[in-house]
Specification:
The structure is a homodimer. By secondary structure, the first copy, chain A, is α+β, with helices and mostly antiparallel strands. Chain A has helices spanning about 5, 10-20, 65-80, 100-115, 170-175, 180-190, 205-215, 235-240, 250-260; strands at about 25-30, 35-40, 45-55, 85-95, 120-130, 135-145, 160, 195-200, 215-220, 245-250, 265-275, 280, 290. Helices cover about 30% and strands about 25% of the residues of chain A. In chain A, strand 1 and strand 2 (about 35-40) form a beta hairpin.
């Protein structure tokens, strides 16, 4: 009989998505960084959850403070990708019985400190015994209807941007990254964004998600991709997950306006094309290659 | 160094609660079945999450359909305990790579079917690899301000009720119970309830939670406690967790009105007393004993 290893994560998620029906209050269910739910005349509710598992998303040797911080930051990054404001958080912990109280205390301090910075209210959760440490964080927030950005709005001719250097995740950035909430709000309030996603699975894979949801293709330029100083090379930027930078697209005129502002973190890396183009990379020698999604696979 | 086993679950939760501050939109943070958050002039948002872990909350021999069903039902029961209406759900799954696709499919069908019955929208979640199966479900819902019931409102002289027979959990009820959403709404809309909790840790422990949050004591009568036909005796009803019946209190006059309706499931089992009374049980021979909280301990 087939196992989840055979089927793969993406196929399983596709299967789940297809089988689930929702009512008309659900503007967007699974398939974006957050679920988008009707709230009132001017606003949507955003909801997202992220499960971190010891051995996959962190190791027992990592600083518990940074692990706790990351558990919250990952979901904050999803709220950022929809240009929202985080509000409330539930934390479920599965903890081995032999866990030291001092470790748990540092984990919680890491959560509390980042929650405070982003005015996130930790309002509840659950605690259970487990063989390995698991942390599931659900965050919900709000976004004004006019500021909501989804993965699915990219248009031919849009310029593609990232919000910072890529490929530094392996060297430890995945535990210390800054969720780009401030940047996302700045962009949504001052520019017409057509689409946005956060880079959690690697640039190639997340750009592919965005292209698929938008029904378009893209070309990106090697020489434009900003590399983290810890990145070994282009491959780290394309395929290593957990940079948690924003990847977004906007019409050419808007892009010109953004570039003229010379705001360091925002870097154009390419352009949205017709779907038939697929995803192409132009290398430093001006050669074109088709980019495979790649990125991180859980199964 | 002290481990979580030494400290205990309740002490850890107390420590967490003390250390967390929230803004004025949080009507009730941790310490009740749900977090209660300001929504609009007439309603609150309710939020709750429950983590189920293989080996603790179910075994790999259990029917995956019922495991999935339970994962959702447990959080629905929390919404019921606050007399709310469930609306949206996020599901995070940590799954061993060797899990059979057929098992995962049945698990998801169990979730989907119960979600449909209660008009709950499954709107997102996360999927990760883990050594043992873990399922974290976050549900949020709404409740009219006038219908909200908390653990903390019990008053001296209130009559204590349960919504059904207790002690059947071990024989399998914990996988098949009906979350008492309908009953809770009926009660809140037709009676003045002072306090409510769902019985997840055992009658003795959950009644103790309610008494502590309300700052009162209670006396309950052995002969009035309805036993599930699968219960071996009173101890199962007092100390085995996961009956998921409602435990609630109302003033004497309201209690009389409820009893006159002769609605089978609702059974009076005792009375709220002054705090100095503690929690007492009157046995069939009219002897009084002090009831220890007992109930299920995760650590």
């Amino acid at each position: 009989m087939a196992t989840l290893s055979d089927l793969g994560e993406i196929a399983l998620i596709e299967r789940i998505k297809k089988s689930i029906s929702t009512d008309s209050s659900v503007v967007k269910g699974s398939g974006d960084d957050c679920a988008v739910l009707k709230l009132d005349a001017k606003r949507y509710t955003l909801a997202t959850s992220d499960l971190l598992v010891e051995g996959t998303d962190f190791t027992h040797k990592d600083d518990a403070y940074l692990v706790g911080r990351k558990a919250i930051a990952v979901s904050l990054s999803d709220i950022a990708a929809c240009a929202g404001i985080p509000r409330y958080c539930l934390v479920s912990l599965g903890v081995p019985a032999a866990t030291k109280v001092a470790f748990a205390a540092r984990l919680l301090k890491g959560m509390r400190d980042i929650a405070k910075i982003y005015r996130l209210n930790i309002v509840g959760g659950d605690l259970s015994r487990a063989r390995q440490l698991v942390i599931d964080v659900s965050i919900f927030g709000v976004v004004e209807k006019k500021n909501l950005v989804l993965r699915s709005g990219a248009r031919c001719g849009d310029i593609i941007f990232v919000s910072g250097a890529l490929g530094g995740s392996i060297s430890g950035k995945h535990l210390k990254f800054t969720p780009r909430l401030k940047e996302a709000r700045f962009l949504a309030q001052n520019f017409k964004l057509n689409s946005m996603i956060d880079i959690s699975d690697g640039l190639a894979q997340d750009l592919n998600h965005l292209l698929r949801e938008s029904g378009v293709g893209a070309v990106i330029y090697e020489e434009l991709i900003p590399l983290d100083k810890a990145a070994a090379g282009l491959c780290d930027a394309l395929y290593s997950g957990e940079d948690f930078e924003l990847l977004f697209t906007m019409p050419l005129e808007e892009a010109r306006r953004l570039i003229r502002k010379k705001m360091k973190p925002f870097r154009p890396i390419g352009e949205i094309r017709d779907k038939s183009c697929g995803l192409r990379l132009i290398d430093r020698n001006n050669r074109e290659k088709i980019l495979k999604p790649g990125g991180f696979r859980h199964f």
